[in-house]
Write a structure and sequence with these properties.
Layout: H1 7-26, E1 41-51, E2 61-70, E3 77-86, E4 94-100, E5 108-113, E6 124-131, E7 134-135, E8 139-142
Antiparallel strand pairs: 1-2, 2-5, 3-4, 3-6, 6-7, 6-8
Length: about 140
């Protein structure tokens, strides 16, 4: 004699089939590789130095530097730029560039010079650094 499955049994079988399919889709394979570890990027602004302008003979240059870490894959780079403010007389030097990345780039020294500016002078300097698109808090130096 042929028996029909009861409704509760059909629902239980359907739920079990859905759970099995869901687990098969979302569960990682036993030999799956772990997700790639993202690189680390950080910077420390430690100093500023001015080569004062001597108009009309030459423009001045403000150089800033410190240490940085960028463990992204070799061959990549990270953007860095700065804007500075000097008063008495007013000067606003700025500069931009890129720093290389790689597995061994940890606490590496860096420096970046401003574009030539006729108003750069020695004295109080406020530097606003941007590293990898993120602005850092301003820092004061005597350059």
């Amino acid at each position: 004699m042929f028996r029909y499955a009861s409704a509760p049994r059909l629902r239980t079988a359907a739920v079990a089939a859905c759970l099995t399919a869901t687990l098969a889709v979302t569960a990682p394979a036993a030999g799956a590789a772990p997700a790639a570890v993202q690189g680390t990027k950080s910077v420390q602004l430690q100093w500023a130095s001015a080569w004062p302008a001597d108009p009309p003979f030459h423009s001045g240059v403000l150089t800033v530097g410190g240490v940085y870490t960028c463990t992204e894959p070799a061959g990549t780079s990270v953007a860095v730029s700065f804007n500075a403010l000097q008063i008495l007389p007013l000067a606003m030097p700025s500069g931009s560039g890129t720093l290389p990345c790689g597995p061994g780039v940890i606490d590496a020294p860096w420096e970046l010079a401003s574009f030539p500016n006729a108003d750069v002078h020695s004295g109080w300097t406020n530097v606003l650094l941007t590293f990898d698109g993120q602005g850092l808090p301003p820092q004061e130096f005597t350059a």
